[in-house]
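Bit of a strange request maybe. I'm writing a small parser for C-alpha cell strings and I need a real example to test against, not something I typed by hand. Could someone generate the C-alpha cells for this chain?
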Amino acid sequence: MESNSLEDGSKLTRFELVFLIAAATVTITLVSACSPLYPFNPWEDVNVFFVVGRGIIHGLVPYRDLFDHKGPVLHFIYAFAALISEKTFTGVWIVECIAASVFAVYSWKIAKLFTVPSKISIILSAVLPGVTYTFLMFNFGGNAEELCFPFLSIAFYTGLRSLVIRKSLPSKAETLLCGIITGVLFWIKFTFTGFFLGFIICILVFAIKHKKFKNLWSLIWRFTLGFFLISLPVIAYFLASKSLGYLWESYFYNNIFLYLDSAQTEVSFDLPVIKYICIPIVCLIKASMLYPSWGVTFLLSLIAPAFADKKQRSSLYLFFSVTLIFTCAFVFTKVSVLFYYGYILSYCFALILIPLIKCINKLENACKKQPKLFQSISAVIVLAIYVLLIASSKNLYLIFKPRSFLTQCRIADTIKQTENAKLLVYDEIDSGFFTASELLPKNRFFCYLNIGEDFTEIAEEHNRLIAEGFFDYIVTTYNCECDWDNYKLIQTETGQYNDQYGNKLTEGYKLYKKC
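Reply from user aminoacidic:
Good idea to test on real output. This should exercise your parser:
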C-alpha cells in the first residue's frame, strides 16, 4: 500500500471506535471473574491488590500498614476500583474494560498504519481481544500485566507512526505521553519499562542517522517531565505518610533481592553476557511450551511484519525487534517462568492484524460480483471463531454461579457472624476472604506472600500474634496441619477451582476460631 499520512492512515471512524470499545467490553464481561456476571474473583494476587486498595480509601498506607510487593500505582488503581464498589469487583471490571478498549483501539490503529482495511475487516478487531483475553495467562482477570500492556500498545503505536511511517522523531506531545506511560509502568512493576529503553535507543539511532541532534534535548526534558508527573505525587504520598522507607524496602529491595519464583527451570549460565542473552530466550521457549496458544500467537506476531510493504518492512522489524528484546530482557530476569510473565508482550499481537486484513482485502476483491454474500460469510466465520474463543475461557465454570459456589464466600458467611472480626490468612495468599467477609486487616502481614525464605518477618508476626490470641479467625489451606492451643477448627470447605494451567482441581480451606 502507499504510505498514508497520520490523519489518513490511523485515524478511526466513529463506527470503528464504537465497535472496538464494544468488542473489548463484551469480551472482558464474558471472561473476567471481576465481571458482574461472575460471583467473585478467587485469584490470590488480585485479592491482595484489592485489600490494599480498599485499605487506601480507609486511610491505610501500602507497605507500612498493609504489606505487598507490587507497585503503588497498581494499589491506587485498585483504590479507585474500591471507590466504585468496595464489596464487589465491579470497579476492577470497569478498569479492565477501559484497559481492554485502549488495547483494541490502538491495536487497530497500528494495523491501519500498514494496511487500508475494507469495511468488513473491522470484524477482525473482535478476534484479537477474543484471543488475548482467553489465554490461560489471563487467569481470572485483573493482574498487573493485563492492565499494563494496553499502555505499551499506545507507546508501540507512537513509535511505529513516528519512526516507521512519518520517518521523524516523536512529537513533543507524544514524548510527554511516553514519559507519563513510563512513570505509570515504573510504579506498577518496574520490569515493564524495558520497552522504553529500546524505544530510546531507536530514537538516538534515528537522530544520529538523520542529524536531528537539536531536537533531542526537547524530547529528553519532556519525557523526563512526563515521568516525574507520575513519580512526584507517588513520592510525595509516601513522604507525607512518613513511609518512604517502607516503599523502598517492599517495592524495590524485596523484589530485587528476595522475590521467589515457584516455576524455576534447571538451567544455569556462568558467563554474564551469555546469561543475559540466553535467559529471555529460555523463558520464552518455556512459556510457549506451557501455554501453546500464547506461543503460537507470539510466533505469528514475529512473522507478521513480513507482510508489511517492502519500504516499511525493514524499519518496522528494526523498531519491533529492539523494543521487544529490551522488553523481554527486563521481564525475564531469572531462568524461571511464572504463568503471567509473558502476558505483557500482548501489545505486539496487533501486528497479526496486518496479514489478516490484507487477506480479507484480497478475498473481497476476488468476490466483487457478490460482495454482500462474501461479507455475510466472513461475518459468520469470524463470529463463530469469536464464540469458540470465548467458550475456551477457563473461567466459564464460574459464570452465573451464586456466591455460595465459592469456598471463600461460604467461609466468609461464618466470619461475618462476628462483628469487626480480626482475620488472618495463614500460610497462604489471601484468595478473597477479607473482601468476601467485608473486613480490612488489623495487622501489616495479613497473609503469606511468596517473596522468599529470607523474609522471615511474615512468619514471625503470624506466630507471635497467634500465640497472643490476637485474631478472632484464622483461615488456612486444607492441607495445612495446624495445632494451636487457643484456636479450634470450626469449618472445612472444599470446592472446584480451575488453576492457571486450566486444570480442574479441588481446593479446600479450614477456618479456625479463637477458643
